[in-house]
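thought: user wants a sequence for this fold. calling inverse folding tool.
action: design(structure=
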């Protein structure tokens, strides 16, 4: 018996998650119980907080959690620590999902949907391994203070321990063995001590235990440029929480649209995984029924593979997405006209 908790969230979150739900119903996996919970702004509206203890408990006792997206202008003036996004950070931290896998793959049919030239992006297959529960997102001290001269000062702390670096690097090296065998570790060791430690520890771990993996190091600013210039040079990009956030959105355009990128956040093997599209709640298109559901559906495929013990169903689902794209199915972000639901229909129809 396994349980999947759906947290649709805000904006386009519920719209795209509804298509994943239809696919789950069609797959009818034996022994899988599916439940839903309020999260983010939706939970603020109904319970006053973005993540209730009850929903957090359910997440921690599930086999996997599939999240939609959180946040939006409605809650933009809410106190920083009570915002929908704070609920997401609390969930990630409590689930201890330190390794965020963000695969940026360009489906052949979408090579012309990107703003980059098709020959630059055709065939790219990059896996970001983003550290997810540390770094400047969580470092202390943080805050906004008023100085004696009346000026205000905002501050955050970037911090990584040896343990935090080594555990996420281990995930990257293990995954590299099952793929192209290359890891590019990205930081700014030229200006940040946390980057110096990151580089040293990743290199040490590779030399001790993963000599079969080819490891290179790159500064984050150069990595951003290389992702646009020659993205095919990358296999796995291992990086911290903030650089991973930025660089994965950047790489999303190599796949045609931000609406294509799924993610899996994993911790220790026995614990539930958290699955979510990398995009947000897209307030500019929310409520119109036109969002691309592929990132959510591909996140579901990752949940099937990594948490729910259904790798064949994951393969079938990814093949169905690819077949739908091959047949020309496109939402607006990919230059087409299908609604969110029609894109779901196109994928369902190919899920033999
Ligand atoms: P966004 O990712 O929501 O949107 C950026 C752009 O991409 C928009 O033009 C949007 O229309 C487009 N887009 C995103 N997903 C799409 C999809 N599936 N189909 C078609 N187009 C899509 O980023 P933003 O506008 O900077 O943020 C909006 C809100 O979402 C903010 O409150 C932010 O904090 C939140 N956010 C949440 C998550 C999350 O829940 N994991 C991730 C990113 C941003
Ligand atoms: C993401 C988002 C989140 C992040 C926000 C909403 C907290 O941008 O998942 O990429 O910065 O991690
Ligand atoms: Mn992001």
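)
observation: tool returned 352 residues.
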């Amino acid at each position: 018996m396994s349980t999947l908790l759906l947290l649709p969230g805000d904006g386009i979150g519920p719209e795209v998650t509804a298509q994943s739900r239809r696919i789950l119903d069609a797959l009818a996996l034996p022994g899988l119980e599916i439940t839903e919970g309020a999260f983010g702004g939706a939970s603020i509206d109904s319970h006053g907080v973005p993540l209730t203890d009850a929903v957090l408990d359910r997440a921690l006792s599930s086999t996997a959690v599939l999240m939609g997206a959180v946040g939006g202008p409605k809650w933009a003036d809410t106190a920083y620590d009570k915002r929908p996004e704070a609920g997401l950070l609390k969930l990630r931290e409590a689930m201890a999902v330190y390794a965020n896998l963000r695969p940026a793959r360009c489906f052949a049919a979408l090579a012309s949907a990107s703003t980059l030239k098709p020959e630059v992006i055709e065939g790219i297959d990059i896996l970001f391994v983003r550290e997810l529960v540390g770094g400047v997102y969580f470092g202390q001290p943080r805050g906004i203070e008023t100085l004696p001269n009346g000026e205000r000062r905002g501050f955050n702390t970037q911090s990584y321990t040896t343990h935090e670096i080594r555990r996420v690097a281990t995930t990257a090296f293990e995954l590299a063995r099952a793929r192209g065998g290359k890891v590019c570790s990205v930081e700014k060791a030229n200006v940040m001590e946390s980057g110096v430690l990151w580089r040293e520890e990743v290199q040490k771990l590779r030399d001790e235990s993963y000599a079969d993996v080819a490891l290179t190091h790159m500064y984050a600013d150069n990595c951003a440029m290389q992702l646009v210039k020659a993205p095919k040079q990358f296999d796995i990009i291992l990086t911290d929480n903030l650089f991973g956030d930025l660089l994965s959105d950047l790489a999303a355009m190599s796949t045609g649209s931000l609406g294509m990128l799924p993610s899996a956040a994993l911790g220790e093997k026995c614990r539930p995984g958290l699955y979510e599209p990398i995009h947000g709640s897209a307030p500019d298109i929310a409520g119109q029924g036109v969002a691309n559901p592929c990132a959510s559906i591909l996140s579901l495929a990752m949940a099937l593979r990594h948490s729910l013990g259904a790798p064949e169903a994951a393969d079938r689902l990814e093949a169905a997405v690819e077949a739908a794209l091959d047949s020309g199915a496109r939402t607006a972000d990919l230059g087409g006209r299908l609604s969110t639901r029609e894109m779901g229909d196109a994928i369902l129809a190919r899920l033999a």
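thought: summarizing for user.
answer: Here is the designed sequence. The mean pLDDT is 97.
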